[in-house]
């Protein structure tokens, strides 16, 4: 991951307008530049690089009349990346407007006879990898001398040789994200996911509650309709199996007449049952009782007696009967 020093790190002047951002569909690649001052005095320290950048910006804006320093990013021998116009902004260094629209511009802080260090190469690969993330079609890496119509020695023989060897071509390690970048991306995705889930919950909670209430009401209505339909089917089944003489008058019978209301001022009385009629008693004297004999047990008249046997001589073989006593 490349760390870019801001414009304030080299005390840059604000740009004077500018062409705006590159168009993604037009970008074909990045072009490598150098200052081309002809000096052999190295520019290695941070302060020296910042001073050099301010001088080149003044030259481009004051002498050339450009809106800003011409390049997008500068990379020094220590591997520091300096923000100039920025990777997204169209440069003014490639030779004409068409080239500036189709290519980015990366400045290598090299002097005549100096070889790019490993740190410069590694940072440049990272910068180009970032450039490709913004502009996926911009895969070409070319020296300025390969695209400028009027010809130029830029970016010098050492940088051209490094480009030809692929020293500035990003590898899979530069294209891949570092663990820190992965963690940052993970945290970002988790935060966004939680925020989205909370938003969805708040949006759906009210709607879901309304849906549940409507569903419950529909169920109740369905149950009522089903009960009514079942009752109708049951009644139809009863009428279908009823005999011909089954009464069809379903009107309710009138309640019996309760009679007049009792008079609360009348004295209460008991309702006793009617007395039973007793049989008539015959008071005529019975003639059979005139001679003083007792009537028979069944009420019939006594029979005429024959001559009695002598007293004390009962019929042989039979026990003497006691004299019957009259009924009491």
Order of helices and strands: EEHEEHEHEHHHH
> How many β-strand stretches?
6
How much is the radius of gyration in Å?
Answer: 67 Å
Relative strand content: 5-15%
CATH topology of the domain at 4-172: Lysozyme-like
In the CATH hierarchy, what is the class of the domain at 4-172? Alpha Beta
- CATH superfamily caption of the domain at 4-172: Peptidoglycan recognition protein-like
Coarse morphology: rod-shaped
- Percent in helix: 25-40%
Lateral strand order in the biggest sheet? 1-4-3-5-2-6
Strand count, sense and barrel status of the largest sheet are:
6 strands, mixed
Mean pLDDT across all amino acids: 79
What's this model, at a glance?
The chain is α/β, with parallel strands linked by helices and 328 residues long. It has 7 helices and 6 strands; from the N terminus they run ββαββαβαβαααα.
């Amino acid at each position: 991951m490349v760390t870019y020093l801001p414009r304030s790190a080299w005390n840059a002047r604000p740009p004077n307008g500018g062409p705006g951002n590159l168009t993604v569909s037009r970008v074909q690649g990045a072009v490598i530049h150098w200052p081309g001052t002809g000096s052999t005095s190295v520019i290695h320290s941070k302060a020296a690089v910042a001073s050099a950048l301010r001088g080149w910006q003044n030259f481009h804006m004051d002498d050339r009349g450009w809106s800003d320093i011409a390049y997008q990013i500068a990379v020094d021998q220590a591997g520091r990346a300096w923000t100039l116009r920025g990777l997204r902004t169209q440069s003014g260094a490639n030779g004409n407007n068409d080239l500036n629209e189709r290519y980015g511009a990366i400045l290598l802080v090299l002097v005549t006879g100096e070889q790019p260090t490993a740190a410069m190469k590694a940072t440049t690969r990272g910068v180009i990898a970032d450039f490709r993330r913004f502009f996926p079609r911009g895969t070409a890496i070319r020296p300025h001398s390969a695209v400028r119509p009027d010809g130029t020695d830029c970016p010098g023989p050492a940088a051209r040789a490094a480009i030809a060897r692929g020293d500035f071509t990003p590898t899979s390690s530069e294209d891949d994200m570092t663990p820190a970048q992965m963690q940052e991306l993970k945290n970002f995705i988790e935060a966004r996911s939680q925020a989205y889930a909370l938003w969805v919950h708040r949006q759906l909670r009210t709607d879901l509650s309304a849906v549940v209430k409507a569903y419950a009401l529909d169920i109740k209505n369905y149950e009522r309709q089903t009960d009514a339909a079942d009752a109708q089917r049951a009644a139809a089944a009863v009428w279908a199996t009823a005999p011909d003489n089954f009464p069809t008058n379903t009107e309710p019978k009138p309640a019996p007449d309760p009679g007049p209301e009792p008079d609360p001022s009348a004295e209460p009385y008991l309702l006793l049952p009617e007395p039973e009629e007793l049989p008539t008693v015959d008071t005529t004297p019975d003639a059979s009782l005139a001679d003083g004999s007792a009537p028979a047990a069944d009420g019939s008249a006594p029979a005429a007696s024959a001559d009695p046997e002598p007293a004390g001589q009962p019929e042989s073989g039979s026990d003497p009967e006691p004299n019957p006593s009259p009924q009491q």
